Amino acid sequence: MLTGWIGFVTLGLIFARHFKSSWDGKTLCGVKIWFAIHRSFMLTALVFIVIAFIVIFVHKNGWNSQTSNPHAVLGCIATALGLIQPIMALFRPAADHPKRYYFNWIHFLVGNAAHLIAIITIFFAVSLASSGLNKDFYWFMAIFVIVYLLFHLFFQVHSWSAERKKNNEVKMLDLAGRGGNATQNGAPEKILVNEALRVIFLGIFAIFLAVILITMYALIGVA
Known about the structure:
Elements: H1 2-18, E1 27-28, E2 31-32, H2 33-59, H3 71-90, H4 100-125, H5 136-176, H6 181-222
Antiparallel strand pairs: 1-2
C-alpha cells in the first residue's frame, strides 16, 4: 500500500501537474511522454493498491467493526476513488471536446482527493494496535508530506519563473526591433537547461521517495 500511494501515485501526480510541457513534440507508445509515464505509474500503483487491499481483508478475515479508528473507512474511500480514476479515463473526451475542461478538473480533484485521503489513512494506521508501529512513523510521514509539498512548490515556481523570463525576453526583442530571430536562436538552449534542471530535481525527489519508503518498511519490519 505504501509503495502504491507514496511511491507511484506521488510520482504520477508530479508528472501530471508539472511535466506536461516537457519533451514537447516527443511521444512514447503513441502518446506524449509525460502522459505515458503518468499512466504507467498510476496503473502500477493501482495494482499495488488492489493487491494490498485484498491481502489486508484476507489477513483480517473481513471487516472489523470493533474499532473507532477511521483507518479502514478512509482506506476504502481512497481505494474506491483510485479505482474510479482509470474507469473515468476510459471516457475521457477528445482534447478539443467542449467537455474536456470539466473532465480535466474532475479527474484532477478525484485523483488528488484519493491521494490526500490515502495519506491521512496512513497516519491513522500508526494508532492501530494491530499495526505495532511506534510514533517515529509519524515523523517520517510528516517528512514525506513536507518534502512533497516543497517539490510541488519548486516545480511551480520554476515554471512561473521560466515563463516570465521567456515573455520578458520576447518583449525586449520586440522593443529592440530585432524580431524573433534571436528568440528562436537562444530559446532552445534555455529550454534544454530548464528541462535538465527539472529532470535533475525529479530524480532527487524519486531518490528521496525510495529512501523514505525503505525507512518506513524498516520500521514496519521492526514493529
